[in-house]
Predict the 3D structure of the following.
Amino acid sequence: MIVASHQKGWKIINQRSHGLLAAMLAYEYDIDLPIDIMVPTLIAIAEHDDGAAETLQNKNLTEAGAPRHFMVGDEANKTELKQKINVMEIATAKSQLNALLTSMHLNFIFGNDSDGKDKKLETFLKDQEKNRKEILKRLNIDKKYADNIYRFVEWCDAFSLLICMDKIQPEGRKMEISKSPDGDMNQTYYKSENVITVEPWVFKSDNFKVFYEYKIIEQLKFKSIQEFNAICEKTVVQRQEFTFSK
């Protein structure tokens, strides 16, 4: 979950909503990919964080009972192995390219966490490395080409996180997004309230709109993840919109 403090309590954004925003950015990105590559890639971008019910994961509450932001504390970048296995099963059931890109993303996020202490994670990551090599052979895709597609996935994912985590600086101050598939380091900033631009411009349209959904949870702490989930289910969904302008 993406969690931020709010004047009324907590602002909660599900990882799935962040993934959908990333896919919207990918849809507008000016990149020349054939349909048999582009569609699975869009799906991989949208669904790379699926595989678990976020509001029912015990790790998503702190010891004090507050909702935990996914990058905060001892749980930062720690996701249950079951979620990793689930998301790979989902991706593999769709297509080999989905499986390849999802596996590359898991390696990008968790590969550096593999310090040898978690043997199950170590085994999973090694198995995925073999899996990626086999998929590349079956699809007859060059690793360099696959790396370029994955850079597209990572760019959209990173940009979506900047937006959802409200990291883009105010007053026109520029910040880096990530390295694009073309190798450029793009920068972004607000032109005005909720109007975002990118330099260099990488999108097909000069103007377009995107959004993510969120909930404001007014209760500050919870006795259990089940109580938190019950409150989340009853809370009205809200929508934050942004305009991208060249």
